[in-house]
């Protein structure tokens, strides 16, 4: 599944003006909340889980790295996300935190 999501991003994402343009941010937010993503981030960031996205030394610096990190996090919470669900989550994170063009 990871391979297909990465191929999807490379082929489809480059054709769009904005990466993850077909993802639905509202659905991504629901997934973020459902899997309590910030519960892990809070511990790593001293209580402000959202700071993980905007810290100066963040791991994610482009859309491909975001897709890869979503795969890592999904495994950590044992979420079997579809490619579309990952796209929705990426769209949410990009819109509110990363702002990749």
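^ Assign residues to that structure.
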């Amino acid at each position: 599944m990871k391979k297909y999501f990465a191929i999807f991003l490379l082929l489809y994402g480059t054709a769009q003006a904005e990466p993850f343009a077909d993802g639905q941010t509202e659905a991504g937010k629901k997934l973020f909340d459902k899997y309590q993503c910030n519960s892990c981030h809070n511990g790593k960031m001293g209580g402000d889980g959202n700071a993980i996205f905007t810290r100066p030394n963040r791991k994610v610096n482009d859309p491909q790295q975001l897709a890869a990190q979503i795969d890592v996090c999904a495994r950590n919470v044992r979420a079997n996300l579809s490619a579309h669900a990952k796209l929705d989550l990426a769209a949410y994170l990009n819109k509110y935190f990363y702002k990749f063009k």
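The longest helix spans residues 83-98.
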